Amino acid sequence: MARSRGSRLSIAALALALAFTTAMFCFVPPQAVGATGSAHGQILDLDGKPWANVSIVLTNDLGRQFQVKTDKNGNFRILGLDPGKYTVKVTIPTQQEPYKTTTHVGIGENVTIDLNFKELVAKQGGPSEEERKKQAEEDRKFESLKGHFTTGNE
Questions:
Q1: Do residues 20 and 94 lie in contact, with contact meaning Cβ atoms separated by under 8 Å?
Q2: Which domain holds residue 135?
Q3: Does 29 reside within a domain?
Q4: C-alpha neighbours within 13 Å on the C-beta side of residue 31
Q5: How many domains does the chain have?
Q6: How far is CA 82 from CA 36, 66, 78, 89, in A?
Q7: What is the mean pLDDT of residues 100-110?
Q8: SS3 of 123, please?
Q9: Between the CA of residue 78 and those of 27, 66, 70, what are the distances in Å?
Q10: pLDDT tens readout for residues 16-53
């Protein structure tokens, strides 16, 4: 049985369309491989020691949030971040308002966010550890002296 030229063209067109469709589903553009990034880091407290159980929230420009807490060594990791600019909020126990900074995550990039609050406080002109200890000692002496006078007046 002979096929007409038209049916041969239809079969060839169908085969070409099938090959093209298969190629479209099998081809993954390079930018789609690892199209997300990640962030990791360590949070250190006011004494420069690892800060455990601190909440870290990364929010992108679209409002999508990624939240994690630090481990016992102050470390954290967030995977699956869409590329873009992020606001980083770190909620620390001694402050009402979270510490804020920004970062940028690129495709396949692993961004490091290390925060040492001992250094941050020193840079912002806050009291150093030595000043805080000195103030605490002065407060204890004052309370002791105050207790001495209170006891004498009773």
A1: no
A2: 124-154
A3: no
A4: 4
A5: 1
A6: 5, 10, 11, 17
A7: 95
A8: helix
A9: 29, 7, 11
A10: 665 555 555 555 444 444 589 999 999 999 899 999 99
